[in-house]
Structure prediction request, 89 residues.
Amino acid sequence: MKTELEQQDIEAIAEKVIEKIKPMLSCKCEGHDNEEFDVPGLASYLGVSISWIYHNQKRLPVNKCTGKLRFSKKDIDRWKAQGNIPAIR
Prediction:
């Protein structure tokens, strides 16, 4: 059985797909200079626990990407250079 779609239906489907994937596309790294950490990766990088990251997330330079926390290495390094280094390791 073969079904053909109207052009307006195809366009509506395409718009819905774009709407759904747009947040995912905006989270992509553009290169190695913009490395990103997830929560476990940042905890390892800073030498702290995962719970410390969640407890202090408002103090950290964080981006929420599709409901997940993401941390730019460049922003974290800048944050650390300002003396915002975790006291508990």
Remarks:
- The first helix runs from residue 7 to 26.
